[in-house]
Amino acid sequence: MKTRERIVLASLDLFNDNGERNITTNHIAAHIEISPGNLYYHFRNKQEIVRDIFECYSTELLERFAPVESQEESLVLLKRYLDSIFTLMWKYRFFYANLPEILQRDEVLHERYLSVQEKLRKNLEAIFNGFIDLQLLKVDQEEAKSLVTTLHLVASSWLGYRSAMSPRTDITEKIIHQGVLQMIAIVKPHTTPMGREQIQLLEDGIKAMNN
């Protein structure tokens, strides 16, 4: 693995485990046993590392939430998207936990974030229209847009909300599963009988993992 890739992966681990604000470039260099000068050869500062991590995140985000025309069963598609929500929130949890702070101090990153989110919004609307075609949801296009906005709001702010509700909140897989369950609760009232049956199976599976 190239040094630049090692720096990015190590930074992601350290940010997730300790909080991005608590980690310096010296911590990162020491973690992978390179000199600070070697790190600065690849990245001028920590903010450039954060931007590189965001590029990895945004690529994976758009790939995972790309509309698909598939012959897969609707239950498989639902599970795939729910798994993707969990995977991304866990893998990039430092970003979700401190999103406003990270974006506010980096105008370039904020612009990139907005661009990616606009692409994501269009993808999610197409995915929801696909669920309507599969007769899993019973909503019109305007309601679908509102649902997308609400789900995006929950996904992007869930970890920050949980941290604000407790003086000491360690981000665990269980907390992220609770966020996924919250999104299911938002969607469930808009499901058809077939959609409700399928999403209940997925909800029960997530709850079982948390017990």
Automatic annotation (TrEMBL):
Residues 1-61 form the HTH tetR-type domain. Keywords: DNA-binding. Pfam families: TetR (PF13972), TetR_N (PF00440). Coiled coil: none annotated. It comes from Vibrio algarum. Residues 24-43 bind DNA. This is TetR/AcrR family transcriptional regulator.
